[in-house]
Each structure stands twice: as C-alpha cells, then as structure tokens.
C-alpha cells in the first residue's frame, strides 16, 4: 500500500463541457489514458449522448495528472453539471465550428466564469465539415466566440484549438496542439488537507462478492483506509475496507484527488443518492444560511424578496425562501428584491434616451442622440437596458436581446 499515486504535485480536475452532440465524449476518448467511473458514455446505451458524469484521466506534458470530467450537454441534466463544476480547476469547452455558441454552451461558459474564468481552453470541433461548407466559417465562429467570452467575463484570449475528432480526418498534430494548450493552463492548486474530511460522492455501485463501492472527489482533508465515514444521504456510518485512486490500491487520498472505496457493512445501492459526506459529525443540518449573492446579468426578471427559489448546494437542489439584505453598518437593511440598474450606455457614455411605454408588452421607444453607424455593433459593445412596469408599479429592469 502507498499514498495516492501522483505524477508531480496535486492533480487538477478538468471539466469537459459543451452543447449536446458537440463532440465532448469523442474528445475525451482521444485524450484520456485511462477510463474510470461511467467513462465514455457507459450509461448512454444507443443514444450516443452522455447521460451521466464520466471520469477518466490523462497526464500533461509536465507530468501533472488531470482528472477529466465529461459532463452531459443536455439541458435537462444541467444540475449534474452544476454539481460537478464546484470541483473544476480548469475547463475545456467543446464548440461545434458550424453551430457556434449554442444554449447549453452559454450555460456552461457561465459556470466557467464563476469557477475557473482564467483556466479555459476552447476546442472547435467538426472543423472538417465547416471547411467543406466555407473556409471563412471557422474564422467567423472564432471571432464570435471571443466576443462571447468577453461578454461573460471569461478569458477572451483563451486558446482556441481547431480539431476534427472522427476517424479518417483526425490528426495527431491536433492532439499535440491541444496538449500544449492544456499545459499552458496547468497550475498548482490550493488544497485544504488539514480540515475535517469532506468528499463529494458521485457514484455508488455493487461489486458481486465484495460489497458496495462509492466513488467521489475529496474536497477537504484526507480520506484514509480503515477510517469511518458518515454518508449524509443515508444518515449512516460506514468503515472503509479498501481504498483506490485511479485503479491503484492506496492507504490515503488527499484533497482534490479521486477516490474509490469499498465500505462495510454493505447496503443496497438503490438506497443511496449523490451527496456530500465526511468525517462523522462534520455535516450538520440547518434551516437558514446567510450568504453573499450576485445577480446573473443575463437573467431578465426581477427576484422579489421572500420569493421561493431553487438553491443548489453540491448535489442537492432545494426550495428555499430568499430574503435579500444590504449591509448597513452593524445591521442589515431588508430589500424588496434583487434589482439591476436601468440605463443605455456604451463604453464611451450615454447614446440615447428612453421616451415612454406603450401597450402591455412593456416595449419602449428609444431615441438616439445622433445617427448610429450600421456597423457599430462590430466596432463597440452596446449595453441596452429597458424599463418595464409591473402591476404593482414597481420599476424593474432587464436586458433584452440585441
């Protein structure tokens, strides 16, 4: 037995993201050196679309182990992606060269902007098909991608690697270019190895003749052989009989690393659901939480105080009543809701005025101070906010499509 096998320093967790059918799993197959839990669409059957989080691994040029997390691209599985994104150190976003940024691409890029905005690599897939249609498509898509990254406050200079992933058009030179881009984003992550054990358990399955196996990523502390763990979804404790990391037997697994462990006594896997677990007594239930929140700039509706919202914490999504507060010296001032500012601006200042509303649609006429060049959208970014009155005459704002 040994401690977790490492190549050089801590492993990095890399999310593989993108719209459904963009080529995420095909890319993962190309770069992975070893498959693990639910890797390469193990649960997708004949659908050919990833339905679960898939884990595999590769080694960077400098010898750093990378845990690849292949995330589903279907809109109905966004909660699984949201849960996985909390462990991302880096992200590879796969974008169809012809379709460009699609709805789930935008959602995934938003998660990247929150968890690893400066550690991003874009893979432009299906470049062979794009080139067959029009050689200018690829450059136009790349231009739009960089514009989108800037709007989402993600590194707009992130590497964009052109690839064709299917047999017959795939070239090893493409893979080497991608590996170089990955190496340029490798860094030494900060891990908490001293705190009490906390692990995000993502899969549970039975091994005939042995018992129940759990897999997950250690978020804090160290997972040790023969130690006791409290499974929050069962409210029960289990002892770790065997412990592995990437199919090697180990004595302990440190924070940030993947782990697979056999527990005793065993239990029916159908009783278990994904959850955070940890050292006995570490996780406690609560009825209220005080947290800092920021509005999503692309969300166009107002959120009233005391409204009920979905709150996602790791693998759990709960209904909660939200009360918005503002710091007022030593106390908090309760607000009516979470509101955004209302204005028409460019990077150079105001360009127009809002005149008035008509009808129940909430539309407004906008008068520009001077004639605007038809190509202005290509020359400078315009942020347009419009006002809308609700039935109770409260004034809120939203950002419409331009």
From TrEMBL:
InterPro entries: eEFSec_C, EF-Tu_GTPase, P-loop_NTPase, Small_GTP-bd, T_Tr_GTP-bd_dom, Transl_B-barrel_sf. It comes from the Eukaryota. Residues 9-190 form the Tr-type G domain. GO terms for molecular function: GTP binding; GTPase activity; translation elongation factor activity. GO terms for biological process: selenocysteine incorporation. Pfam families: eEFSec_4th, GTP_EFTU. NCBIfam families: small_GTP. This is Tr-type G domain-containing protein. It comes from Caenorhabditis tropicalis. The lineage of its organism: Eukaryota, Metazoa, Ecdysozoa, Nematoda, Chromadorea.
